[in-house]
Write a structure and sequence with these properties.
With about 140 residues, this protein is α/β, with parallel strands linked by helices. It has a single domain, classed as Nucleotidyltransferase, domain 5. Helix content is about 25%, strand content about 35%. The chain is built from 4 helices and 9 strands. The strands form 2 sheets. Strands 2-3-9-8-5-6-7 form a 7-stranded mixed beta sheet, covered by helices on one side. It is globular. The chain starts with a strand and ends with a helix.
């Protein structure tokens, strides 16, 4: 779930747009049926994450954050076909994921549309400069 300063609107490309969006913590994990505690690898494999994307002209910086708001992993990819394919492969390690793309109507547009077309859950988040201008508190 996300909270926002401005109500969400779905753009033509299928990306939900929210201003001043921030993730709410509290997604739950399920325990393995075997009754034993899952290993770290098993937990990571089914972990629910929010993947934050900061697009730039030549690269894309991403960070996967778990339900507790802790950084799980970060990476950088080139802003080209090979880089975006590598990003998609990288994200597959998190089977339950949602994407928060900064400026999905600008530099992040191509990636947001590509993810949305692939059936991914994508939300547009505003840049820090927009949050300061609108007086949003996070």
């Amino acid at each position: 779930m996300f909270s926002a300063c401005v109500p969400p609107a779905t753009a033509a490309c299928g990306v939900t747009q929210k201003r001043c969006a921030r993730p709410e913590v509290g997604m739950s994990f399920t325990r393995a049926n075997s009754g034993r505690d899952p290993t770290e690898t098993e937990v990571r494999a089914r972990m629910k994450v929010l993947i934050g994307v900061d697009p730039h002209k030549a690269s894309v910086a991403v960070a996967a954050v778990n339900e507790a708001g802790e950084l799980v992993e970060g990476a950088h990819f080139s802003q080209n076909r090979a880089g975006l394919r590598a990003l998609e492969r990288w994200s597959k390690r998190f089977p339950e994921r949602r994407w928060a793309v900064e400026n999905a109507g600008g530099l992040g547009r191509h990636l947001a549309q590509r993810l949305s077309a692939a059936g991914e859950s994508v939300v547009d988040v505003s840049s820090p400069s927009f949050r300061r201008a609108c007086g949003c508190s996070l």
